[in-house]
Specification:
The chain is mainly alpha-helical. It has helices spanning 7-13, 21-36, 38-71, 98-113, 122-131, 139-153, 161-179, 183-202, 205-217, 222-243, 262-293, 301-315, 324-331, 337-356, 364-386, 393-409, 412-423, 429-446, 453-457, 494-502, 524-532, 557-566, 588-597, and strands at residues 488-489, 508-512, 518-523, 572-575, 582-586. Helix 3 (38-71) packs across helix 8 and helix 13 packs parallel to helix 15. The chain starts with 6 loop residues before the first helix and ends with a helix.
Length: 600
């Protein structure tokens, strides 16, 4: 249902009184068109995509600039224990100080202007969409850009996808607020920003779309899909103009695995699912330890904690920043099993510590890094046991990347798509899908949370339940359901059913079998379609019965509402305890009445 702009939103759109009245009215009409019209939504999606593309360019430039400033190299993770040419006297020991210096800058910045910019960003966007109507403070984009670029450039072992999602989402929310968009469109515009940021940063327009829909919106509605695609494509075009039409990783060529090797990939998928869950748990365990140990002002936490991060970098300089060159070396088979396992453990610790001390950055790239290390080690071990018939090590590294991310985030569609966009090799799809599905199922069997939702649940926020302020909170279906309308026997002819449906106020009626058990519902639309297409008048109504998703009297109204919306205006039958009979009928009118009667 289209949500109209609020009175406050309309007031914010009025320009300065110095402008002539006709100009103010014209601007308001333009904003109303953008906020409510379908064509306006297209314009907003294109604008947000362009803005997200530009934001991605600035963000990557900031990361490159700060990395050169703090390390003296384009990417220090592949440089080894070398000195920073800016301060050669410090030798390799400079890595102890760079996280401290950067923390002294971004710590107060985040603390004073945008506390939500701390951490990996995606959970905050998910919360804003699910609980705040898509409202994200505009300053988040600026603060997140600076804080994350400083953190990554000074050695923080985090990724750039979380920041760019939050940056793009903040842009989408700001554009929606300026246009006076309703909450439904605000959420969609936030998702457009997230998709655009991912698409431009990683040159992965499809992954941007599915990331936004699978993790941010958690739905695949047709209109939303189209707008998100527009935003993602626009951002990707801008990103390619700046960075070139190349994947963000340089991977060696490889050939597809044979079907006989699927058992090994399946085993890798199960292990990757366990690794993804372990990463999530260790991440928040270390964050809890940092929370317990810290007793001083929060703005100083990144700087003081930076000493610990610097110590990790001193031992393993490969943990500096995002670490894509190290990941590429692992995929190319340049490391031994022991070193791969050391890099895997080091990344878990370094990323968890970066987040725990108050750093700002994403967990997507670290999960890809861990997957590459685990997959390469698995592939090398398989070679030692079974010989060269198991296929190239690189294929196991690539599949491991997608599987570990799927195990941590439980976003299988996004994982498959982004790995396909990385490689451009369709033959990887079969082993990739098998491993990712098994990783997702393994993760789900171990825990009900993902690496993103666990952060919110630790704050007492469960996105799978209605918001505490929801007008439907605490209301069951039994409290709002209406009496069951007169049922149609299964043998009723279509002509008789049409007569009964014509006078029914629901537009649908339950259909029962000879023993009185519930079979399904017959809608006026279904009967009309059959008759208009030449169906026989004497055909029994059981032939057009549809089975709706079961709704029970004790179900929460908030949970049943999604099924009710999908049922169109006809409403839904409420099953009794046995599941074979009906105890009531729930309609949109009944829900509105319940909300109207609920105390303010």
């Amino acid at each position: 249902m289209q949500t109209m702009p609020s009175v406050q939103g309309a007031a914010r759109r009025i320009p300065s009184p110095l402008l002539p009245v006709p100009n103010r009215r014209g601007l308001n009409r333009l904003l109303d068109t953008l906020a409510t019209g379908r064509g306006g939504l297209v314009v907003l999606a294109l604008a947000i995509g362009a803005g997200a593309g530009g934001g991605a360019i600035v963000f990557r430039w900031l990361i490159t600039t700060f990395t050169h400033l703090f390390s003296g190299h384009a990417d220090y993770s592949a440089a080894g224990h070398v000195a920073n040419p800016h301060v050669p006297a410090l030798g390799m020991w400079f890595v102890l100080l760079t996280p401290v210096v950067a923390g002294l800058i971004y710590g107060p910045l985040v603390y004073k202007f945008a506390p939500e910019a701390r951490g990996h960003g995606v959970p905050e966007v998910m919360y804003a969409v699910a609980r705040k109507g898509g409202r994200i403070a505009p300053q988040v984009a600026v603060v997140k850009s600076l804080a994350s670029a400083l953190c990554i450039g000074s050695g923080g072992s985090v990724g750039r996808e979380g920041p760019i999602v939050q940056i793009g989402s903040a842009l989408g929310s700001t554009v929606g607020r300026v246009a006076g968009a309703g909450e439904d469109r605000m959420r969609l515009l936030v998702a457009c920003g997230a998709a655009g940021g991912i698409a431009a940063t990683f040159n992965a327009p499809l992954a941007g779309v599915f990331f936004a829909m699978e993790l941010i919106l958690t739905s695949f509605a047709a209109e939303g899909f189209g707008m998100i695609v527009l935003s993602s494509v626009t951002a990707s075009v801008i990103g390619r103009a700046a960075f070139g039409n190349v994947p963000f990783l340089t991977l060696p060529p490889f050939h597809a695995a044979q079907v006989s090797q699927l058992v090994l990939f399946a085993a890798l998928g199960v292990g990757a699912g366990i690794a993804g869950v372990a990463f999530s748990r260790i991440l928040y365990l270390i964050e809890d330890a940092c929370d317990w140990a810290w007793r001083w002002p929060e703005w100083a936490r990144p700087a003081v904690g930076g000493l610990l991060l610097g110590a990790v970098l001193l031992v393993l300089p490969e943990m500096y920043g995002v670490g894509y060159p190290v990941l590429e070396n692992a995929v190319a088979g340049k490391y031994a099993i022991g070193f791969l396992l050391a890099l895997l453990a080091g990344k878990v610790v370094a990323t968890s510590l970066t987040i725990g001390i108050g750093g700002s950055g994403g967990v997507f790239a670290p999960s890809l890094f861990m997957g590459a290390m685990a997959g390469s080690a698995f592939g090398l071990a398989a070679h030692d046991v079974f010989g060269s018939t198991v296929g190239p090590v690189g294929s196991y590294a690539l599949v491991g990347m997608g599987a570990v991310f799927a195990g941590a985030a439980r976003a299988p569609i996004t994982a498959v798509v982004i790995m396909f966009e990385l490689t451009g090799e369709y033959s990887i799809i079969l082993p990739l899908m098998a491993a990712i599905v098994l990783a997702t199922l393994t993760s789900k069997a171990i825990t009900g949370d993902t690496i993103y939702t666990l952060k919110l649940r630790r704050r007492g926020i469960d996105l799978s339940t209605p918001a505490p302020t929801s007008p439907f909170a605490g209301i069951t279906v039994a409290e709002v359901m209406e009496p069951v309308p007169a049922a149609l026997p299964a043998a009723t002819s279509l002509s008789q059913a049409a007569d009964a449906l014509a006078i029914s106020r629901h537009g649908a009626l339950p259909v029962t079998d000879d023993d009185g058990s519930f079979l399904g519902i017959a809608s006026a639309q279904a009967v009309a379609e059959v008759l208009s297409e030449g169906g026989r008048d004497d055909e029994p109504v059981r032939e057009v019965v549809s089975a709706p998703k079961p709704v029970h009297a004790e179900s929460d109204l908030a949970e049943a509402l999604a099924d009710l919306v999908a049922a169109a205006p006809s409403g839904l039958p409420v099953l009794d305890e046995t599941g074979t009979g009906l105890s009531g009928w729930i309609t949109h009118q009944a829900v509105l009445l319940a909300v109207h009667r609920s105390p303010a």
